[in-house]
């Protein structure tokens, strides 16, 4: 198994001319994408919230999060990102990957299109609800 590194363009959502191009390591164990606070503030990205994270060594830390546009090849999305501190690694997390409709293939060392699933049709929802109700009655 190998690593997957990708070229990413990060943009300020409100000022798309403010952008940064960088190579990121894909981290399928990371929920959010993490970028340096210095880079994001340089793009005019402001913290919108704080989140708590558990580190690999078990500590719980708090980080600011914001929102950016992330582009990989022809795919683009708005995504929540961690405003990382100097000790934090810059990585591409799985939430961003899923928002882009992509998945990591560590064997091939590349990103591939993700098969997206959709619960389509109200009759499927009605059938599932009816089956659930029937099981609850028994």
Written description of the protein model:
The protein has one domain: Acid Proteases (Cathepsin D, subunit A, domain 1, Beta Barrel). The strands form 2 sheets. Strands 1, 2, 3, 4, 5, 6 and 7 form a 7-stranded mixed β-sheet that branches. Helices cover 21% and strands 42% of the residues. The longest helix has 16 residues, at 122-137. By secondary structure, it is of the alpha+beta class. The protein has helices spanning 37-42, 94-100, 122-137; strands at 5-11, 19-26, 33-36, 49-54, 60-72, 75-84, 91-92, 102-105, 110-113. It has 3 helices and 9 strands; from the N terminus they run E-E-E-H-E-E-E-E-H-E-E-H.
What descriptors fit this protein?
42% strand, alpha+beta, Cathepsin D, subunit A, domain 1, seven-stranded mixed β-sheet, 3 helices, two-stranded antiparallel sheet, globular, 138 residues
Helix/strand layout:
Elements: E1 5-11, E2 19-26, E3 33-36, H1 37-42, E4 49-54, E5 60-72, E6 75-84, E7 91-92, H2 94-100, E8 102-105, E9 110-113, H3 122-137
Parallel strand pairs: 2-7, 3-6
Antiparallel strand pairs: 1-2, 1-5, 4-5, 5-6, 8-9
In short:
This protein has 138 residues and is an alpha+beta fold.
Tell how many strands the DSSP assignment holds: 9
Gyration radius (Cα, Å) is 19 Å
Report the CATH C-level class: Mainly Beta
Question: What name does CATH use for the topology?
Answer: Cathepsin D, subunit A, domain 1
Taken from the alpha-carbon principal axes, the silhouette is globular
Reported CATH architecture: Beta Barrel
The average pLDDT value, as a whole number, equals 90
Query: How many separate domains make up the residues?
Result: 1
Please outline the major beta sheet.
Answer: 7 strands, mixed
Give the CA-CA distance, first to last residue. Answer: 48 Å
